[in-house]
Structures are given as structure tokens and as C-alpha cells.
Amino acid sequence: MLYRLVIQNYAIIDELEVDFAGNLNVITGETGAGKSILLGALSLILGERADPAVLFDKTRKCVIEGAFRVKTAQVQPFFDANELDLDDPVIIRREISAAGKSRAFINDTPVNLSQLQELSALLVDLHQQFDTLEVGKSNFQREVVDALAGHTDLLQAYGKRFTQYARLQKELREMNALRDNANKEADYNKFLLDELLDINLQENEIESLEAEQQLLGHAEEIKGTLNRIYFQLKEDEQPLLQQLRQLQQSLQGLAGFHKDVPPLAERMQSSYLELQDLASEVERLNDGVQFDGERMEQLNERLALAYKLMKKHGVQDTAALLAIRDSLQEKLDGVLNLDDRIRDTERQLAACQEVLELDAQKLSEQRKAQTEPFEARVNALLAQVGMPNARLRVDIAEGALQAYGKDNIEFLFDANRSNQFGPIRKVASGGELSRLMLCIKSLVARSVSLPTLIFDEIDTGISGEAAKQVGIIMKELARGHQVICITHQPQLAGKADAHYFVYKQLVDDKVKTGVRLLSQDERITAIAKMLGGEKPTQAALENAREMVMQ
């Protein structure tokens, strides 16, 4: 509930603070005194666009602040989703600077207008005379029928299953699109894969083939050099090994004459042995190098094919070609696996749809069972509030499965017993919509969690008994909900739990609006003036007293 509204520097309001009661709050006052200005200020903290022209004093900012006591379960999801701290009370503040810049806050944390609008929809239901009211919206109409049907558990179970159904539908669409695209590429990918499978490259094969090609291509040069080295080491007229052996023996002969000679002799012996081993290795290599023309042709052919594939795929080595081969294989395998996944998802979707159809049928039957009693009760209330010729009809047509079943629900309205019913949002006037909304909400108030209800001159165009009945309905509605109502009707004002009077006064040559909570005697006087003018008669005062005391 809204328990405090603070307004500073807005329109003709310099500074104002109103503490509202929990049940039926009635606001009265002379025309032009500023009653609707209060709602204009309130609409700013509900997320309406700000207009700098509303500043009372153009040199300072405008501040509107509302303090709400809340049901935690009702607003906790919003605070969690927006990562805001939930305090009780919830303080919503809107500021408009002298330069026209607007800022919004929830519990002193800056928020944007969409967040403000989302939260305010949970806290306040504002109905102004010429608004397109919620009653004309399909979602609200369905919620009304569902509240009367009392099938919350079934509706929640259906909603969870429909979420699963929608997810499966999305997955199936995505997989079908993926398969279509994959099928377009499949033939070409298979051609590319077959090329790579046919050549059957092994790891690092191209690099190994290139090394072997280099060897065979220079076989004669390699063999000639190795022959020469081996010959000079072992088979020349004076082989190097023989010369080294002789030099080592000469050094060894001097070992007894100088202490540093033996180490030199040992080193020369080691060199002799190393060169002898080297000669053996050269001989082995030489024996292993043979030019093979047939093998060279095979190498050239295989490398030519490999180079062609490398150029085709824009890569430089064996590893890259093998990676492309594996990727193509994975894509083709994926197409085959995708068919299996699509068939499995189609089976799940069909099973889910079958259950949804059954639950949707149950929902539809329970909704249809409520339509006639609901129509009768609303039409009776419409007669009470001064619309005896008005009729409401609930039209339920079957459609496709959707988040709340398969029913398309439309409230149809005929204001003049013409039997020409049309959608409420198209055929009902602002005043008719307001009273219709009052009738509907009074019926479902015990079933639907309604926020603070604010009505701006809902009683326009009625008087007498009809106005009295509006007051009775409003009083009943306010038993479980906070209701704030701007009215000109004494019958409605007499039902108030808290009666506020809006007035204008001249202060420092400026007209300012004020609001005060009336005492019991002040209420009687105010209502008497509404009945009989500025100088009420004793009869008007007695009549007013009777209205207040009822």
C-alpha cells in the first residue's frame, strides 16, 4: 500500500505530504483545486515521462516520493532480477532538475524508467477517466476468468510444460535449419573428404617425403663426397689414419723424456680411434645411398598430389591437411547424428504437445464454466452503478497452443441493449470502462492479488442511487485492498475510511495547493457542501451526517 506521498515543487504544489490510510481513501475538493494534480505527480513515480514545465519554481528541482509497504513475495522477484535491495518500506523517488533532467530511484538506488514502470505495475493500479484501462487488455481478461476458475495449480503446471514445449520447438527449428545448411554443403564436403581419405596421409608424411626426395635427388653428389672422404681416411697412398697412427707412435716414444708427452700421446690415440669410427660411419652411409629412379618417380607423384591439396586448402604442412580431414569428417558425422537428434526431439515434442492439449482442454472447460455466472454478476453490478442497459459478454474462442492454454478470451460490451457487442477497448467510453473495471475487480478481488487501486472520478455521469451503489462496491473492494478515489459524489465520500480535502490558497501572490485530512465534523460539513452548496442547510448537514455514520 501507498502510505505516504511527498510532493515538492510540482505544478501549483509547493510542498505537500499526504499519509494515506490502508482501506478507502477519498479525495474531494473544488474543481481546479488540484485533485488531479496529485495523480499527475504520482504518475511520475510510476514511470511517466517528465515535463520540466511542471516545475512550480523554475529555479529548483521537483521531487516526488512515494513510500510503499509491500508483500515480499509480490515484489521479491523484481528486486532479485534487477539486483536491488528490498527494504520495507519501499521508497520510490523521482527528481526533475531545473534544467529538465530526470532521475529515478528505488530505495536510493538509481534506476531507469523501464525498471520504475515494472515495479510500479506491481504496486499501483492507476485508473484515470480517459485512460485505455487494463480491462480492455487480453491478458487481464484471461486473468480475471482464471481467477474465478480457481485453477492456479493446473495453470502453473501447464505453464511449465509449455515452456518446455517452446524450448523443444526452438531446438527443432534450429536443428532443421542447421541440417538444411549442412545438406547444402554435404556433397561438396564429402568430395573434399574423399580426396583426403584417398591420399591417406600419415602424420608428418609430406615432410618425410620431402626429406627423402632431397636425398635421392643428390644421391650421386652425396656418394661421391663420402667415397672421397673414406678413401682419404683409409685407402689413399698415405691414409690419414695411417699417418695419425705413426704420429701417435712417435709421441709415445718420447714418453720417458718429458712428463707432458704421455697425455698428448693419449689424446692422439683418442683422435685416431674417433677418426677410425668416423671412417666406418662414412662407409656405412655410402653403402646406404643408392639412387632409385622408380622410387624418385613415386615420391614426385605423391608430393605433387599432396602439394595440390595443400594449395587447394591454403595450408603449409601435413598436420593442417589432417586437421581439415578430421573437421570434414566431423561435419559429415554431425549431419548423420543431427537426423537422429531431430527424430528424438520430434518424439519429445509430440509427447509434450499431447499432454498440453489435454491440459489446455481442461483449462478451457473450467473457464467456460465461469462465463455465464460471471456475466450475470457483472451485469447486475453494472445496473447498480447506473448502467442498467449495459451488458458484458465473455467470448472464448479456440486457438493455437500458447503460454496460458489455447483460448483467446475477449470481453465484449453492449452499452444500450442493442445486441451489437464489440470489444471493450473499442466500444466502451472512459467512464464506462472505469465503472466496468470497478465491477469486475470487486468480483475477483479475493482471488487476484491486486495492488493499490486509484480511481480518478470513476463516478462521472452518475448520481443518486447509482452513486450510492458505487460507494458500496468501492467500500467492499477496500476491505482487502487500499483504494484511493477522487470523487465529486457525496455518496461515495461518505463511505471513506479517510477523507482528504484539496484546496487552493494564495501565498505570496502565488496560488498553491494544499491537502488536509478531515476530521469527522469537517467531513460532515464537506459532504453537506457537496450536497447543498457553499452554505449547506440543516437538512443537508443531517443527510451528510447520516452518510458518514452508515
Automatic annotation (TrEMBL):
Coiled coil: 165-219
Family: Belongs to the RecN family.
UniProt entry tagged with the keyword Oxidoreductase: no
Function: May be involved in recombinational repair of damaged DNA.
Key words, A-Z: ATP-binding, Coiled coil, DNA damage, DNA repair, Nucleotide-binding
Name of the molecule in the record: DNA repair protein RecN
Record domain RecF/RecN/SMC N-terminal: where: 2-505
SUPFAM superfamilies according to UniProt: P-loop containing nucleoside triphosphate hydrolases (SSF52540)
Gene3D superfamilies assigned to the protein according to its UniProt record, in alphabetical order: 6.10.140.1090, P-loop containing nucleotide triphosphate hydrolases
